Amino acid sequence: MKNCPLFIKKNWIAIVSVLIVIGWAVAGYIYFGKSIADTGSTGKTVVSSGDTIGVDYVGRLEDGTIFDSSLEEFAKQMKNYTPGREFKPLEFTVGAGQMIPGFDAGVVGMKLGEKKTLTIAPKDAYGELQEQEVPAKYLQDIFTETVPRENFKDIVTQTVPMSQLGESGKDLVVGKVIDAGNIKAKVTAIEGDNVTVEIDNTGNPFYGKKLAVGLTGEFEGNSVVIKKLTDKEVTIEVNNKANPFYGKKIEVGMEWKSGENTIKIIAVTKENVTIAAGRHELAGKTLTFDIEIKSIK
């Protein structure tokens, strides 16, 4: 869910290879079935940190659903199977942070050609989901909110401790403009550790307009209309199209994904909705990997 604006307070079919060379016979039975495992030029047979290794894998969720594999016969069982993708052992450098922690640590000490099942908890995979309570109305299609009239001024004056400005608080002088992304603030006074700034309130959906009942505006995809005005307060109605669950009845188990981000509803009451958010679609999930070491270099 987007932050509330100022005015609302805020991845070879299996082969069993038998290679026979005159005077030397080697039989290699490989679990995932490519050819005999490759030791590269190092002759190493045990994985240690810093090695570059090749691994065949099948990744599953707790219910057995396959979400990724380096082997096409298993990848075909995925919902997002991509024909034409090159299927080969995954190559990475152990301990270099290229893999999720549980996978990286799980291969250390394994032998060339060894098979193993890794069960990785969320904290060692893509992280835990972070829970947060959200007022239920903010997930409604339309809601009303009463806020101070002052929040709709084109220029908003605020006094804040200099320490709260972080890097932006260094070398401040009166007249300097602080650029914080989509917010620009001009320093008008400095008294001790306190800094007074004038904020160009372009996030105001009624920016540059005289407030009046019925006045409409737009903010990040939401339409806003003034329903009531007093000297001190403004009551607005928000058509909440930015709501990730817009047009749907809010229920436990609902999920919303955008890129690598995911939000899941885990509890619903009349007043609040508890969501669990993660920065990856596999966040909060225990993962199982059937792996085999195919090469060590």
UniProtKB/TrEMBL annotation:
EC main group: isomerase
Stated family: Belongs to the FKBP-type PPIase family.
EC number(s) given by UniProt: 5.2.1.8
Record has Protein transport as a keyword: no
Subcellular location: Cytoplasm
Matches recorded under PROSITE patterns: FKBP_PPIASE (PS50059)
Catalytic activity: [protein]-peptidylproline (omega=180) = [protein]-peptidylproline (omega=0)
Claim: Cell membrane is one of the keywords in the record: no
Protein's organism: uncultured bacterium (gcode 4)
Protein's name according to its UniProt entry: Peptidyl-prolyl cis-trans isomerase
Keywords: Chaperone, Cytoplasm, Isomerase, Rotamase
SUPFAM superfamilies: FKBP-like
Chain's role: Also involved in hydrogenase metallocenter assembly, probably by participating in the nickel insertion step. This function in hydrogenase biosynthesis requires chaperone activity and the presence of the metal-binding domain, but not PPIase activity.
InterPro entries for this protein: PPIase_dom_sf, PPIase_FKBP_dom
GO cellular component entries: cytoplasm
A Pfam family matched in the record: FKBP_C
